[in-house]
User: What shape does this take?
Amino acid sequence: MVLNVQKLINAPGERMTFQFDLDLSDVDFGGRRPAQNPVVVTGEVRNVAGMLLLDFTASTVLQSICDRCLKAFDQPKTVSYQCMLARELAGDEENDDIVLLEDGCVDVGDLARTQFILEMDTKTLCDPDCKGICPGCGVDLNQGSCTCKKEVDPRLAALAKLLDQDQDQ
Assistant: This one.
C-alpha cells in the first residue's frame, strides 16, 4: 500500500490513519509458511513540529509447529514499527530510522512486509516449558514420561561399570 503524504509535509499537527491487510502466505520461513491468515496493518503518519512520523502495528495469528514436541498450534504475532519520513537526507550518512519519500509517497506495504519478516521468531514453542519428545521412543514428554532405559554415554562406560560394582558389594 502506497501512501501519498504530500499534504502532511507542510501541515504541522495533521495526521493520516491507515489500515490494510497484507498477504504473507507466500513467505517460506524455515520450510513452512506460517502466515496463512492475513496480516492486519494499522497505523498513522503524523506531522510533529514539521517532522513526519510513521508508526504501525502488524498483527496476525501464525500457524506454527512447536520445535520441541512437533505439535501444531496457533501463535498470535504482533510487530510494531516506527520511523521518520524525509524527502532527502542531510549529508551522506545512512539512518535506519529514516525512510526516504519518493515523490511524496511511502510504500507502507513494503515496510510492513519487511519488518514482519525480520521479526519472525527463529524458534517457536507451544509453551515455554515444553518438554519435547523422547529421542529414543518418540513419546511426547508433555503427556507423560517414557519407559526408555537411559543410555550411558560411551565415554563414561568405564565409570558406569565401577558404579555397578559398588552397588553389587
